[in-house]
Structure formats: C-alpha cells, structure tokens
C-alpha cells in the first residue's frame, strides 16, 4: 500500500476523525478553515481515494456521500505490513523498528503484544 499524498492524507483525516459519511463540500469547508483548497481539486482527490478503495460512496439526491472504508489504525498497520514484506530479514527489520521507538512507543508495543496474547488464549 502506498502512503497517502499530502492532500489525500488531509481528506482521509477528516473521514477518520468524523467517522461518518460526509460530502466533498464539508471536507472543503473544513480544510479551508486552515488553508485554501479548491472544491474541484478536493473533488478529484476524493474520487481518486474512492477508486483506490479508501472511501465508499453513496448517492444522496444529486450529491455523493463518502465514508472511510477502514480506520486510520488499519491503514497504519497495512503500511507497516508492507514495510516488513520488502525486508529480506523480518526479524532484523523489526529490531530496527523497535530500536527507533521512544519510550511511549515501546510501552504501546508491549501493551499490543499482551492484548494479542490474551486474545489468542481465549
């Protein structure tokens, strides 16, 4: 899975945070609170995100309502999985990843491993 481009990430951020269907107009209006974004540009990129499988869409009268297909966490996990797939030495790649984590990241990883272990035992 490729990383999202800058505008793609801005658009997806809204859908992930809102966790509900939204129109391109809503996304444009929210982005424009922080910087200028053209309606046509956001429409084009939103359509691209739909075709890439990141968004679903449904008609509501004459407009499209878009919604995120997965969560931000699922997207992040897919990026990490893809990163591991390109490594010829997965254990070494994982070691490098963990070495680069700060204390909070290490704590989060330990908690995740404990949670997965508990679920496996159920």
What does this structure look like?
This protein has 122 residues and is mainly alpha-helical. Helices cover 63% and strands 10% of the residues. A two-stranded antiparallel ribbon has the order 1-2. The protein is elongated, with a radius of gyration of 18 Å.
Give the neighbour order of strands across the main sheet.
Answer: 1-2
Please trace the helix and strand order, writing H or E for each element.
HHHEEHHH
Q: How many helices does DSSP assign?
A: 6
Helix content: 55-70%
Radius of gyration: 18 Å
Which structural class best describes the helix and strand composition? mainly alpha
β-strand percent reads: 5-15%
For the largest beta-sheet, the strand count, sense and barrel status come to: 2 strands, antiparallel
Record the SSE blueprint:
Layout: H1 6-18, H2 24-31, H3 39-51, E1 55-60, E2 63-68, H4 72-85, H5 90-99, H6 103-121
Antiparallel strand pairs: 1-2
Helix pairs in contact: 1-3, 2-3
Record keyword descriptors for this entry.
mainly alpha; 63% helix; single chain; two-stranded antiparallel sheet; 122 residues
What is this structure, in a nutshell?
The protein has 122 residues and is mainly alpha-helical.
């Amino acid at each position: 899975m490729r990383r999202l481009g800058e505008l793609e990430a801005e658009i997806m951020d809204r859908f992930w945070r809102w966790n509900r269907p939204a129109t391109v107009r809503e996304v444009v209006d929210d982005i424009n609170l922080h910087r200028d974004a053209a309606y046509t540009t956001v429409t084009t990129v939103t359509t691209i995100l739909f075709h890439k499988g990141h968004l679903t869409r449904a008609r509501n009268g004459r407009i499209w309502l878009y919604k995120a297909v997965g969560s931000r966490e699922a997207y992040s996990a897919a990026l990490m999985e893809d990163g591991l797939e390109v490594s010829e030495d997965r254990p070494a790649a994982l070691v490098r990843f963990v070495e680069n984590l700060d204390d909070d990241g290490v704590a989060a990883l330990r908690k995740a491993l404990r949670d997965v272990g508990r679920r496996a035992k159920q």
